[in-house]
Amino acid sequence: MDDRKLSLLMDFYELTMSYGYFKDNRHLDTAVFDVFFRSVPDNGGYAIMAGLEQVIDYVKNLKFNEKEITMLRNKKIFNEDFLSFLKGFKFTSDLYAIVEGTPIFPQEPILVVTGPIIECQLIETMILLTLNHQCLIATKASRIVKQAQGRSVMEFGARRAHGYDASIYGARAAYIAGVAGTSNTYVDYLFGVPALGTMAHSYVQSYPTEYEAFLSYARTFPDNTVVLVDTYDTLNQGIPNAIKLHKEYLEPKGYYLKGIRIDSGDLTYLTKKARKMLDEAGLLKTQIVVSNSLDEYLIKELIHQGAQIDSFGVGERLVTARSEAVFGGVFKLAAVSEKGVLTPKIKISENVVKTTTPGFKQVYRFFDENNKAMADVVTLFDEVIDPSKEYELFHPEYPYKRKTVTNFSVRKLLEPIFVKGKLVYKSPSINEIRDFNKKEMSTLWDEVLRLERPHQYYVDLSLDLWNLKRNLIEKYKRVN
Length: 480
Known about the structure:
Blueprint: H1 12-23, E1 30-37, E2 47-48, H2 52-60, H3 66-73, H4 80-87, E3 94-98, E4 103-104, E5 111-116, H5 117-122, H6 124-147, E6 152-155, H7 164-176, E7 181-182, H8 185-191, H9 201-205, H10 210-220, E8 226-228, H11 234-250, E9 259-262, H12 267-280, E10 287-290, H13 296-304, E11 311-314, H14 316-319, E12 329-338, E13 341-344, E14 361-367, E15 373-380, E16 391-394, E17 402-405, E18 409-412, E19 414-419, E20 422-423, H15 430-441, H16 446-449, E21 458-461, H17 463-479
Parallel strand pairs: 6-7, 6-11, 8-9, 9-10, 10-11, 15-21
Antiparallel strand pairs: 1-5, 1-12, 2-4, 3-5, 3-19, 12-13, 14-15, 14-18, 16-17, 19-20
């Protein structure tokens, strides 16, 4: 994106731990780390994977220059051998990930990195902050787009985002999940996400009259005239002036008033009145755009109440995911080399959801004969699921809940991205990711997509993995 050097964008304990590994000559021991999340924001039924392209860019370009090494030297806690190691750092690990646009669910690995433990440790923060942010915004955008029921949604949150990058990558993530475009012009420049927008209230206020402002805009953009009608009085001035603009200027010149935007007031009442006024004036094709602190819940209510809306501009509550602004992805050790053998590791907690699943893993998605997603099964990495044979799914916490499935297909979700440090994955274009997301969303049952109290999608463990986890829990409970 720019010339910033982000190699030191990491929690300092990643360096102190790495130094500890280095001093103990364990820094090249093989480890496996998982990225996963524990719950879907807003008590939703699904989340959306996003941000992998930026993870790839970071890992591919991770190097430490002399200025960064000098800064670390000045901390006076690292020896020169360690600093020399960092100066010659090269990523040599394997990295697997679920690709962008895929619906994802709690407790399954969405990214796995395996290789020298020092490499895995150093990239933790950047992986988490990238995926946590973009998965969060993509998920929020997907919920909003779903509730719009086919009406276009525009991301309008640039000025309310939590900083430059949050605006840029938030808009990117929102586009993946189905918004039509963004107000952020830089995102169009970087990623080709359509930049959209017309006028603000200041444009209307800057002219002697509202009509003169509308006329000026129509002269400048006659084939794309959308006017903001709520600066003074929506029903008594704004819409009558918009109709006058169409009748006296646009129509005689062969153009048509494309739309009006309302940014305040009771949007159900105002859009119903506006539609009636426009239709009675013969402007049947003029669209009504609304904005003003919208989210999925308000959009659902507006449509339920019969509001006459063709598209939505959604800003702060999308780009900040205001209702639940943390995704909660974590980066946990799953295995580490001990005497040359990759040994599964587990973190045990009294809080069941915080007990990790050990080992080097893969994720399979099960589809029924209608290509609807039935469940995800987390397996050991080398396990093979044969769809020609029946398979027993069971709940990992309540194993008595079981179901035998037949006539199904499966797909591995974790794809190789880096192999021995070499990038083997070609990132698709943002429009390809967007199309893929739309296709993948069609595989989810409506019950999973429900806004409130959705059906809980099944994420199960294979029998071998479940036995490994259970045995490790018993082992460490005895030891302690």
